[in-house]
């Protein structure tokens, strides 16, 4: 990502607001931007979702294709997650192979889905030891205004939730079946600016923050994945606040996406 | 072009598998100004193709060695998203997308007044969200709307559409089955004010007569596509004006 | 800037549209002649000025013109110059000879650094669009504090208003210092609450730039937000 310079005036202004517990767009420190979800937008995909988090928009598409299992898990389907920060989405994104940031993003989303057991991979077995379903989750940023982690997590989860496994299309079964989904892993990302932690940072907030923490919870409010990013540090009490908020906000978001 | 099928692509009444006549294009939907960050943008559907295009610039040209001291360069990146086709497309650039990007950039250079912005770059990103034959035409059609939306000076808007041949019939705007199992595909793009041809490719097998007939159809259809492009831009402008209130200064 | 005698019609045109016959008019702004017809080359509204016909562009981007006052953000520091982002297609170098201080070679970073915001004047734009900016003029300086608002550059003329009426009103009612850059950036400095109200008022002007009675509506807005502010005619700072 090439660097976009945030003016000192902007930086000072955001810091001054935060000192009063305020944000430039009027949100509370623990408030998520408006979420909109559109599913089934791509017919060539087995599942798809276009998700907006404020002005950040991403698209996730699911492809489900027969393949061979790994030796150590002969009866399990395989999940693969990719994320692309395409230059269409922001002036700072450059063409070319996935950047460090894109790879980290994909891996964090992948971890939440994988570790929560969202997909029952046992049900993705066609013939043990020979053939299983490979589930490809491909996510593209379309408009970038901060917090791709949560936007991509939501898009992937919503796309999977509405995806089919094409048993019939590939002549592997009588009919296509819904994706075997067991729970909805929801990530909540916060940024640390000065001593404050703010939920769902936008572009400017992200740009002036020192550290970032993503916490993914499952339906029971248990923790399934975490990732700390950024050059700054967080304290134990910061972490504690993030964990509490991740559970609370995770609940709210699950209500929104059903 | 090389595939074989028992499928009847055009029946005895001249009706195609998607119900179209031989000289009928697929339904087109165009919306301008759909993205927040880009200088200009466009979403386009033609049949089952879904395309998103963004324009950034004119801006500083990177990498620098591509700079031209006399004019702006137009850099196009055509990209098929992984889920846009039945078999997953491996992300990343391949030879096909490099060629398509180059042809689209050259077609756009014919109309964009690049001489106004020496050393700069106008970057055009075309994302194919869903592909069903004809994506290079769809991409170019969307790109010229996005350029106009960005306020970049250009002498005209470029519409593109293909003609071709299947089951021995000359057809307009091939769909996926016709493209896979037909005998020819000829994408073409024009400058409507002058009827200059700015993109032309062909693969397959057509007689001179068939080709002339196909081109006549495609050029006439391109003028119709152009009207849809204009309409999308005018709707975009009207919606902005409306937000600003009815009266003029 | 509004041109004298410009008559803007309501007709929306897109690139390639015929504006008039070349026998009746000459090609004006954003227009070209081809085969006896004057055609548009950008999207906007058809506009007549004397014997020319052209297009008032919708939006678009800022192209610097010699003499423009602009607000720049430093994004790189070299040994004998600074690079500024002035919201244009081209970066704008500021040479050490164009600042009000004596700067030794390699000592640039001590005066201005990345992220600093500067009031500037466009000194020169040459044919290949190479830009030079200067800080050597009255009122030009590094600015700190306050708020920096960015709007579409084409709306700047509305923020200024007819013979400066809008900007004068904003300054008087808010008691803020306001510097308007031709490149779409506006700096507001003063009491924190007032600064926020002005920033909001500018957003309203941007969003409703074509409505009638805009000045009155903005006045009402500020009166509602800052009821205690007295409308004294104190001179402003710029």
Count of structural domains of chain C = 3
How are the strands ordered across the major sheet of chain B?
Answer: 1-2-3-5-4
Q: Largest beta sheet of chain C, briefly?
A: 6 strands, antiparallel
Order of helices and strands of chain B: EEEEHEHEEHEEEH
CATH superfamily of the largest domain in chain C: K Homology domain, type 1
Largest interface: B-C, 42 and 33 residues
Number of extended strands of chain B: 10
Please, what is the average pLDDT of chain B? 93
Measured between the Cα atoms of the first and last residue of chain B, the distance is: 58 Å
Order of helices and strands of chain C: EEEEEEEEEEEEEEHHEEHH
- Rg for CA atoms of chain C: 20 Å
Largest sheet of chain B: 5 strands, mixed
Q: Shape of chain C, please?
A: flat
Number of helices of chain C: 4
Give helix % range of chain C. 10-25%
Taken as a percent bin, the fraction of beta residues of chain C is 25-35%
Could you please describe the fold and organization of this structure?
The complex is a heterotrimer of chains A (258), B (249) and C (238). Chain A is built from five helices and twelve strands. Helices cover 27% and strands 30% of the residues of chain A. The longest helix of chain A has 22 residues, at 236-257. Chain A starts with 7 loop residues before the first helix and ends with a helix. Chain B starts with 27 loop residues before the first strand and ends in a 6-residue tail after the last helix. The model of chain B is unreliable at 245-249 (pLDDT under 50). Chain B has helices at residues 95-109, 135-149, 176-181, 208-243, and strands at residues 28-32, 40-46, 49-60, 73-80, 120-130, 160-166, 169-172, 184-191, 196-200, 203-204. Chain C folds into three domains: 12-57, RNA polymerase II/Efflux pump adaptor protein, barrel-sandwich hybrid domain (OB fold (Dihydrolipoamide Acetyltransferase, E2P), Beta Barrel), CATH 2.40.50.100; 69-143, Nucleic acid-binding proteins (OB fold (Dihydrolipoamide Acetyltransferase, E2P), Beta Barrel); 147-236, Ribosomal Protein S8, Chain: A, domain 1, CATH 3.30.1370. Helices cover 18% and strands 34% of the residues of chain C. Residues 233-238 of chain C have low confidence and may be disordered. Chain B binds chain C through residues 39, 57-60, 69-70, 111, 113, 117-120, 148-157, 191-194, 229-230, 233-234, 237-238, 240-241, 243-249, and chain C through 2, 8, 10, 12, 14-17, 30, 32, 34, 39, 41-44, 57-61, 89-91, 127-129, 207-212.
């Amino acid at each position: 990502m090439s660097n976009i310079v945030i003016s000192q005036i902007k930086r000072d202004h955001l810091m001054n607001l935060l000192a009063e517990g305020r944000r430039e767009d009027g949100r509370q420190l623990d408030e998520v931007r408006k979420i909109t979800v559109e599913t089934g937008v791509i017919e060539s995909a087995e599942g798809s979702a276009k998700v907006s988090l404020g002005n950040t928009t991403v698209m996730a598409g699911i492809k489900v294709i027969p393949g061979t299992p790994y030796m150590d898990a002969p009866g399990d389907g395989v999940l693969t997650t990719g994320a692309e920060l395409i230059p269409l989405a922001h002036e700072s994104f450059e063409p070319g192979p996935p950047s460090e940031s894109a790879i980290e993003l994909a891996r964090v989303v992948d971890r939440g889905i994988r570790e929560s057991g969202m997909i029952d991979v046992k049900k993705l077995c066609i013939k043990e030891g020979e053939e299983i379903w490979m589930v490809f989750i491909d996510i593209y940023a379309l408009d970038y205004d901060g917090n791709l982690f949560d936007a991509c997590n939501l898009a992937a989860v919503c796309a999977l939730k509405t995806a089919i496994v094409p048993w019939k299309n590939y002549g592997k079964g009588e009919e296509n079946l819904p994706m075997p989904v067991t729970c909805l892993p929801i990530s909540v990302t916060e940024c640390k600016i000065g001593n404050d932690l703010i939920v769902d940072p936008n572009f400017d907030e992200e740009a002036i923050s020192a550290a970032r923490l993503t916490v993914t919870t499952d339906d029971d409010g248990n923790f399934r994945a975490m990732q700390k990013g950024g050059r700054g540090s967080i304290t134990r009490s910061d972490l504690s606040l993030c964990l509490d908020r991740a559970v609370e906000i995770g609940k709210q978001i699950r209500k929104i996406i059903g | 072009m090389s595939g074989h099928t028992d499928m009847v692509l055009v029946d005895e009444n001249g009706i195609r598998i998607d119900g179209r006549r031989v000289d009928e294009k697929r339904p087109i939907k165009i919306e301008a100004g759909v993205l927040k960050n880009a200088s200009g943008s466009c979403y386009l559907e033609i049949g089952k193709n879904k395309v998103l295009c963004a324009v950034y610039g004119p801006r500083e040209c990177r990498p620098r060695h591509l700079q031209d001291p006399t004019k702006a360069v137009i850099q196009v990146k055509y990209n098929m998203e992984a889920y846009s086709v039945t078999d997953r497309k491996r992300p990343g650039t391949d030879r096909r997308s490099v060629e398509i990007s180059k042809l689209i950039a050259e077609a756009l250079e014919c109309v964009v007044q690049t001489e106004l912005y020496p050393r700069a770059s106008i970057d055009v990103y075309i994302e194919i969200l869903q592909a069903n034959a004809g994506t290079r035409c769809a991409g170019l059609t969307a790109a010229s709307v996005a350029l106009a939306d960005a306020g970049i000076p250009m002498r005209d808007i470029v519409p593109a559409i293909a003609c071709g041949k299947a089951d021995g019939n000359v057809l307009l705007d091939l769909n996926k089955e016709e493209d896979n199992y037909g005998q020819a595909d000829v994408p073409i793009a024009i400058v409507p004010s002058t009827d200059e041809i700015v993109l032309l490719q062909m693969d397959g097998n057509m007689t001179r007569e068939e080709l002339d007939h196909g081109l006549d159809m495609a050029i006439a259809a391109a003028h119709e596509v152009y009207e849809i492009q204009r309409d999308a831009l005018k709707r975009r402008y009207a919606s902005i004006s409306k937000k600003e209130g009815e009266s003029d200064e | 800037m509004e041109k004298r005698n410009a008559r803007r019609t309501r007709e929306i045109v897109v690139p390639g549209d015929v504006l008039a016959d070349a026998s009746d008019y000459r090609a004006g702004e954003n227009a070209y002649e081809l085969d006896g017809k004057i055609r548009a080359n950008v999207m906007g509204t058809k506009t007549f000025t004397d014997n020319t016909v052209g297009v008032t562009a919708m939006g678009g981007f800022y192209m610097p013109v010699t003499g423009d006052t602009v607000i720049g953000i430093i994004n790189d520091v070299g040994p004998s110059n600074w690079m500024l982002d002035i919201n244009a297609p081209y970066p704008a170098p500021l040479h050490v000879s164009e600042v009000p201080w004596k700067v030794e070679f390699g000592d640039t970073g001590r005066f201005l650094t990345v992220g600093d915001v500067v009031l500037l004047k466009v000194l020169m734009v040459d044919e290949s669009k190479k830009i030079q900016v200067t800080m050597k003029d009255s009122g030009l300086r590094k600015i700190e504090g306050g708020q920096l608002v960015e709007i579409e550059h084409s709306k700047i003329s509305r923020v200024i208003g007819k013979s400066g009426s809008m900007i004068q009103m904003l300054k008087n009612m808010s008691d803020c210092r306001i510097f308007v850059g031709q490149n779409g950036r506006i700096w507001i400095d003063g009491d924190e609450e007032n600064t926020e109200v002005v920033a909001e008022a500018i957003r309203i002007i941007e969003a409703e730039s074509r409505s009638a009675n805009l000045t009155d509506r903005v006045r009402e807005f500020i009166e509602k937000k800052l009821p205690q502010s007295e409308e004294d005619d104190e001179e402003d700072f710029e």
